[in-house]
Amino acid sequence: MRSVPVPLGERSYTIHVGNGLLAKLGDHCRRLKLGERCAVITDTNVGPKYADLVVRTLKMAGFVPNLITVPAGETAKSLKVAGECYDQLAIKRLERKSFVVALGGGVVGDIAGYVAATYLRGIPFVQVPTTLLAQVDSSVGGKVGVNLKAGKNLVGAFHQPRAVLCDLDTLASLPERELRAGLGEVIKYGIIKDAELFKRLEKEMDKVLGRDAATLMNVVARCCTLKADVVVADETESGERAILNFGHTIGHGLEAVSGYGEYLHGEAISIGQVAAARLSVRLAGLPEKDSERIRELFVRAGLPTTLKLPPKKRTALFDAMRVDKKVSGGELKFVLVKSIGEALWGQRVSDADINAVLNSIVV
Amino acid sequence: MRSVPVPLGERSYTIHVGNGLLAKLGDHCRRLKLGERCAVITDTNVGPKYADLVVRTLKMAGFVPNLITVPAGETAKSLKVAGECYDQLAIKRLERKSFVVALGGGVVGDIAGYVAATYLRGIPFVQVPTTLLAQVDSSVGGKVGVNLKAGKNLVGAFHQPRAVLCDLDTLASLPERELRAGLGEVIKYGIIKDAELFKRLEKEMDKVLGRDAATLMNVVARCCTLKADVVVADETESGERAILNFGHTIGHGLEAVSGYGEYLHGEAISIGQVAAARLSVRLAGLPEKDSERIRELFVRAGLPTTLKLPPKKRTALFDAMRVDKKVSGGELKFVLVKSIGEALWGQRVSDADINAVLNSIVV
């Protein structure tokens, strides 16, 4: 097992990466001195696989868990589902020292974390991410939230978990498409902050896709460390944390105009990162060949790098990008890369440049 | 004008108490260096009176205000209304530096503050309370939230305003019942923290009810100072801040079982404080005569001190109290007073004691 500390003062916590961790959840929670009552929030995909085990380990550790199952998929990240969860917590009489366990992928982590952030003005929560994407990205850093019709994550909070347990065993049964989608974020860390990781992924992509245990351990722990570094440097995204949004402005826009659910998040940001790399060639001096290496790595990960977008939907895409959170003074701000491993945030990009790059990826 | 500082590090702000402040809102916001776009959230009672003036002063100061009007009354503190506000903010393209102005009473402050706390994971907001209750209590300290069917303020956040403007002119047209309800919180400050204020209120209640300008200035500024002291000592209510909940456990329970809207908040907590004073006689050594002084002061303020509660509703009241936030380990925790001006928080109280006290106020 690897332990990655996230030192944030009184909000510090540890990310645990390893095998067989689900069964140890109860012990971990007991060490955190959490209240007796808790809610395990999961979804209709993950619940049938792991909820029994999680409820059992919590009970054995002396907790009183209540299981709440939300619909699988991005559509669960709504105010409506949050409202249903609140009602359950109130019925089950969860108190300020009670806690929420988020058992599932990024969607479950975001909705469960948001519910924990706002119920009784905030109660503790523990992230138990069961997808690659959630393990390397969304479960770490405390960003939680729900979507509005107008865009993704427009409502939310910063609420750090009390612990993150990444059980690599859960990746074994992850559908192929979900594993690949997670690689969208894994590759991102290489592009924005770690040229070595990028090179390693170029070399070991087949091992990753083959779910080699040692390789996954290394990759997940490395991504968590990178994410933790960024979060510690800038917890509430007033500066550097923005680099994590590489490829996300266009990615989120795509998710919004296509209706949440058509693209997995990792797929949308794969396209977004290819576009952001091309913007980086135009505006930040990224060598053309590195932009091409980026595109090729996404292709090798089996992720989409081109886009079907009817011309009349392009205006909707721009509108969706403009309601995204990364807008200031009405202007779109992008994360660009000077080189693989070195990102710049807050870069102004003209609509003309965005259009030119979109033209190059729309098929 | 009086200025009351609330020193909370990077979340510090100033409460301004005085006359003619609404017209100066634009200047105040400019000094805070807030973004251009903003939303003025008000309700159907307050909007017709003051929204024009507020929108004008903001425009004159160079801002682009959007008016959002929510229904008047406690029922507006719902996830549904919050959702409608979010949609408006997204449509009007409010950004992270944009801000929300809460123009109205406690309900508007709570819902507008909650929307500001959660939209884009938190944007700035300015409180412009127009009722006595909001000026002395809910606008200060950053507690924001909405109600669930199961109880009041069960969903919320801690989100400090960037400034509070208490324009005493708005009290002149306040309906009599609302003024009296505000006195429910004013008297509370005397009971829990300021015996001098309590005595002054005993002497000057007629002047207060007559809306004497100098008296109101003194009382509002004093209450804001007391509240600020408590909030600074314990921003997120891990300890002392709980004393502000004196009378609120039973009060919130009453509001829940009677359906939000029958009692004004200040009325419900008036009954709750009379009950809490009697619990204090039984359990905390409060002299019987001081409990009686407390009851009399609420009577002089024209507030209810007895309760019509059908016997079969009493179970519902206990249930409602138990889902309140002030519960730990399943046990109800009360704020009691040893003497007028000296409160104890986190006091365990048995159901038997609560029942005995309820028997004494139910008519």
Please describe the topology of this protein:
The structure is a homodimer of 363-residue chains.
Chain A: E1 2-6, E2 13-18, H1 25-31, E3 37-43, H2 47-60, E4 64-70, H3 79-91, E5 99-104, H4 106-118, E6 125-129, H5 132-138, E7 143-148, E8 151-158, E9 163-167, H6 169-172, H7 176-193, H8 195-209, H9 213-233, H10 248-257, H11 265-283, H12 288-300, H13 314-323, E10 327-328, E11 331-339, E12 342-348, H14 351-361
Parallel strand pairs in A: 2-9, 3-4, 3-5, 5-6, 6-9
Antiparallel strand pairs in A: 1-2, 7-8, 10-11, 11-12
Helix pairs in contact in A: 1-2, 3-4, 4-5, 5-7, 5-9, 7-8, 7-11, 8-9, 10-11, 10-13, 11-12, 11-14
Please tell me about this protein's structure:
- 2 copies of one chain form a homodimer.
- Helix content of chain A is 48%, strand content 20%.
- Chain A has 363 residues and is α/β, with parallel strands linked by helices.
- The first copy, chain A, folds into 2 domains: 2-172, Rossmann fold (3-Layer(aba) Sandwich); 176-361, Dehydroquinate synthase-like - alpha domain (Dehydroquinate synthase-like, alpha domain, Up-down Bundle).
- A 7-stranded mixed β-sheet of chain A has the order 1-2-9-6-5-3-4, sandwiched between helices.
- In chain A, helix 8 packs antiparallel against helix 9 (213-233).
- The longest helix of chain A has 21 residues, at 213-233.
- At the A-B interface, helix 3, strand 7, strand 8 and strand 10 of A face helix 3, strand 7, strand 8 and strand 10 of B.
